[in-house]
Specification:
The protein is an all-alpha fold. It contains 2 helices and no strands. The chain has helices at residues 9-28, 32-53.
Length: 54
């Protein structure tokens, strides 16, 4: 069983890592990093949404 973290902190950290991937994509001119950054931003917003419902 997995425990559910009711804090929004993990969501904000996912979004911050997504922003870091966007920065790496721009600086390194790597197109694939945009998709990874977008995935992290979506995961972070889902974590925040789930934490705010509880």
């Amino acid at each position: 069983m997995q425990t559910v973290n009711k804090s929004k902190k993990s969501g904000y950290l996912f979004i911050a890592s997504g922003v870091a991937f966007f920065a790496a994509a721009i600086l390194g001119e790597q197109l694939s990093f945009y998709g990874i950054g977008l995935m992290f931003v979506i995961l972070g917003s889902a974590f925040i949404h789930k934490a705010s419902e509880e």
